């Protein structure tokens, strides 16, 4: 018998699809390639603070399919940037909307998506004030790519930062996790299952405003767990804040269809993307008031207390498992690859 | 789905653990064969809650892990051809071959696609008549029926540009090989519930008799595994060595005979080399000669493959259950899910990846 394995050849020269997954590969891409060239050193936040209270963020959207249960690439692009601003405690002031369109895209589709983006912006109370449109040849893009950029103004007493979590903080999740990622997967052709789920894509700026009104500066950290999912956001906050986080597995709201789809595909719901919920770290003295304020709004009705910041290894996230044991909650390496069986 | 919640009930789990503690009087060693079971055990930390001295050994049942390097290298060589679309289950894409993995090859322009069922690969072939579509057909008896159906479907509908690169493996010969190993430490087996849903459990009865080991057909939820362990311990305590079925909601003694028929029509038993373990007689399935036109190994001449293994990793010992991932000097250092040295670090069903993702260290197993 032999007991040997092959020499590894990790890909170091080219971009892999997994580099865009929000996992460990993406973190490496940022720290090894992007941020050093830009001279950035501080931990990366969902949005940047400019001066005292202005907040600035940008994000690109390449989702396939462009229309999915619960939304489309237009509304998603608005919600995503509004939410990135909100995670710094900011009220959105204005958005830009930029398109890269592939030759041949039906005009009716572009009209529908633009209408959807406009409606989403109105609903979030933020005007789209500028934009750009480029057309590239067939095959040079996949239908339509959308970029939104937003500026916002920090709410009074709002100080949330990924680096702001403190020992004793209560960890909250504002709603069910995994809906967006599973809705997208189920909308893709040929998956062989039909999950009855819609994306949770929605604006969270009102929810954050209610949280800040209830808890002020005691709302220490906010993150919307998009790519990389809940596990990614918890790890980012634990690392940036230098704290240890313990989450109770049974307390995390995973909708039944999401759990079923994840079981079927061999995915971890904590790694699946969300577009309409947030993770919050709140000082224990304000946690009850913040939870009550969240639950009073439809987008926070499912708010759950899922864990706390505990004594332990800085940067580590632990889960208390269903059977009462514990494990470390890690970030994804690259793309989440479905298991064989 | 109501059932799913039931099989994850924390109160019932604690009750089973308490019963296990009162039942076990000796430090029994039990192997769960299947990687899916390893995943649940390590993810839930079940092995840490067992009575003192009792051990779970994690078996060779991760299809990604045991697929021979030669097959991976062959898949890489075939995928590199411009006329080929190579399709596979997701977690095969990061398994390291001698000179890279399928994901890296994809970044360099190869057409590599993830499918969720082999029938999708047949459909891709039908939609791309000018291309060759190759499906990397790996797995245990669980994936064999669907893979057989894909070949039958392609043959019946005349999709001649579909072929399968087959590396199917079988569980019972692997268990026999493990028990024939002079270092064998396993005293009871948890057999894989889904494998038995297809094959039934008659194949395990001679093994239980010959080696005097209890075999419990077990499911994949936390309560399934706790109950399976408890049933195995009861047998050990009572000096019995029988095949019992914990997974009664899915498995019957004769299995799924229609699925078995599909397997027999398409495949024949062959000797197979298990990566990290070595050759095991009559432990694999290969396409029957009448399906040669759908056999990628026949259709694509890739020349002599020179496979090269490095001595650094102990995957074979881990797969045989004689050492733990945390015993490996490369574990967590040069070998991580980001840069896997061996296949068990790739799939979440692989023992090394299951350990790493749960934060296990040599100090804190």
CATH architecture of the largest domain in chain A: Alpha-Beta Complex
Largest interface: A-B, 49 and 81 residues
**CATH topology description of chain B:** Rossmann fold
Please, what is the CATH homologous superfamily of the largest domain in chain A? Answer: PurM-like C-terminal domain
Number of helices of chain A: 8
GO molecular function, one term (chain B): iron ion binding
Family (chain B): Belongs to the HypD family.
Keywords (chain B): Iron, Metal-binding
InterPro entries (chain B): Hyd_form_HypD, HypD_1, HypD_2_sf
Descriptive report:
The complex is a heterodimer of chains A (341) and B (365). The two termini of chain A are 27 Å apart. Chain A has eight helices and 15 strands. Chain A is of the alpha+beta class and 341 residues long. The radius of gyration of chain A is 20 Å and the shape is globular. The longest helix of chain A has 18 residues, at 107-124. In chain B, the strands form two sheets. Chain B has a six-stranded mixed β-sheet, with helices on both faces. The model of chain B has no long low-confidence stretch (mean pLDDT 91). With 365 residues, chain B is an alpha/beta fold. The interface between A and B is large, with 49 and 81 residues. Strand 1 of chain A pairs antiparallel with strand 12 of chain B. Chain B: One of its GO terms (molecular function) is carbon monoxide binding.
């Amino acid at each position: 018998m032999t007991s040997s394995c092959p020499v590894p050849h990790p890909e170091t020269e080219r971009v892999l699809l997994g580099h865009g997954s929000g996992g460990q590969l993406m973190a490496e891409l940022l720290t090894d390639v992007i941020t050093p060239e830009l001279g950035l050193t501080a931990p990366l936040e969902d949005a940047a603070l400019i001066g005292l209270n202005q907040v600035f963020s940008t994000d690109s959207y390449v989702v396939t399919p462009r229309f999915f249960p619960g939304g489309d690439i237009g509304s998603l692009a608005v919600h995503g940037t509004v939410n990135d601003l909100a995670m710094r405690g900011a009220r959105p002031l204005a958005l830009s909307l930029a398109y890269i369109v592939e030759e041949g895209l039906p005009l009716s589709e572009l009209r529908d998506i633009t209408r959807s983006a406009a409606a989403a912006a109105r609903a979030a109370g933020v005007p789209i004030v500028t934009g750009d449109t480029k057309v590239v040849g067939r095959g040079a893009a996949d239908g339509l790519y959308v970029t939104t950029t937003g500026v916002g103004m920090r709410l009074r007493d709002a100080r949330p930062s990924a680096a702001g979590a403190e020992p004793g903080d209560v960890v909250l999740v504002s709603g069910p996790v995994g809906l967006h990622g599973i809705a997208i997967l189920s909308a893709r052709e040929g998956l062989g299952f039909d999950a009855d789920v819609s994306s949770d894509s929605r604006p969270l700026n009102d929810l954050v405003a209610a949280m800040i009104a209830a808890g002020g500066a005691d709302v220490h950290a906010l993150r919307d767990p998009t790519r990389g999912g809940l596990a990614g956001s918890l790890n980012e906050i634990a690392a940036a804040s230098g704290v240890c986080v313990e989450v109770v597995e049974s307390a995390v709201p995973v909708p039944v269809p999401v759990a079923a789809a994840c079981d079927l595909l061999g995915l971890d719901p904590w790694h699946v993307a969300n577009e309409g919920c947030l993770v919050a770290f709140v000082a224990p003295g304000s946690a009850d008031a913040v939870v009550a304020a969240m639950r009073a709004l439809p987008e926070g009705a499912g708010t759950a207390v899922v864990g706390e910041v505990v004594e332990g290894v800085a940067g580590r996230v632990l889960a208390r498992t269903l059977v009462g044991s514990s494990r470390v909650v890690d970030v994804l390496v690259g793309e989440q690859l479905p298991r064989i069986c | 789905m109501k059932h799913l919640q039931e099989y994850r009930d924390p109160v019932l789990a604690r009750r089973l653990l308490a019963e296990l503690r009162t039942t076990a009087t000796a430090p029994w060693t039990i192997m769960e064969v299947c990687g899916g079971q390893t995943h649940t055990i390590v993810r839930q930390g079940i092995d840490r809650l067992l009575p003192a001295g009792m051990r779970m050994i994690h078996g060779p049942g991760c299809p990604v892990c045991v697929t021979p390097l030669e097959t991976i290298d062959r898949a890489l060589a075939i995928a590199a051809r411009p006329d080929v679309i190579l399709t596979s289950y997701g977690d095969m894409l990061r398994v390291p071959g001698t000179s890279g993995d399928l994901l890296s090859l994809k970044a360099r322009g190869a057409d590599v696609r993830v499918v969720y069922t082999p029938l999708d690969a047949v459909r891709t072939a039908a939609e791309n008549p000018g291309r060759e579509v190759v499906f990397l057909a790996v797995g245990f008896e669980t994936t064999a029926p669907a893979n057989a159906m894909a070949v039958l479907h392609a043959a019946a509908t005349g999709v001649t540009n579909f072929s399968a690169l087959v590396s199917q493996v079988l569980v019972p010969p692997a268990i026999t090989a493990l028990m024939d190993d002079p270092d064998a430490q396993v005293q009871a087996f948890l057999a894989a519930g889904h494998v038995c849903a297809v094959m039934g459990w008659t194949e395990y009865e001679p093994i239980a008799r010959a080696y005097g080991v209890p075999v419990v057909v077990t499911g994949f939820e936390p309560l399934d595994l706790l109950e399976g362990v408890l049933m195995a311990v009861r047998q050990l305590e009572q000096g019995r060595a029988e095949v019992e079925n914990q997974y009664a909601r899915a498995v019957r003694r004769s299995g799924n005979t229609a699925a078995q028929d599909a397997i027999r029509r398409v495949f024949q038993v062959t000797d197979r080399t298990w990566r990290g373990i070595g050759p095991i007689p009559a432990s694999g399935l290969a396409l029957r000669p009448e399906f040669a036109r759908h056999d990628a190994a026949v259709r694509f001449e890739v020349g002599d493959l020179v496979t090269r293994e490095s001595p650094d990793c102990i995957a074979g010992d881990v797969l045989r259950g004689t050492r733990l991932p945390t015993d490996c000097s490369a574990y967590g250092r040069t070998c991580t899910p980001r840069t896997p040295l061996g296949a068990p670090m790739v799939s979440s069903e692989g023992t090394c990846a299951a350990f790493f993702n749960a934060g296990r260290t040599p100090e804190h197993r």
